[in-house]
Amino acid sequence: MIAAPKLVLLILIAFAVWYAVRWFNRNAAKAVRRGASAGAARAARPRQAVEDLVSCRICGAYVAMSARRCAKAGCPRPA
Questions:
Q1: What is the helix, strand, coil percentage profile of the chain, to 5?
Q2: What is the pLDDT, as a whole number, of residue 20?
Q3: Which of 12, 28, 53, 72 would bridge 61 by S-S if both were Cys, CB 3.0 to 4.6 A apart?
């Protein structure tokens, strides 16, 4: 037969575990909601325009049209 103090201690431990699981789940749900709102804010920002690539006339590497040089090692294209 289990003594009364041991039974009370077992009930208290079970309650503490149940409460800890509830607390962790609540905080995890808050973190997910915060992450979702941050993702929505990130998606609301305007995106940069897509820029076409052109072939460097000297070395043949593809670079953005606004690039001053192709940055390929050994390319004589001026900066």
A1: 50, 10, 40
A2: 94
A3: 72
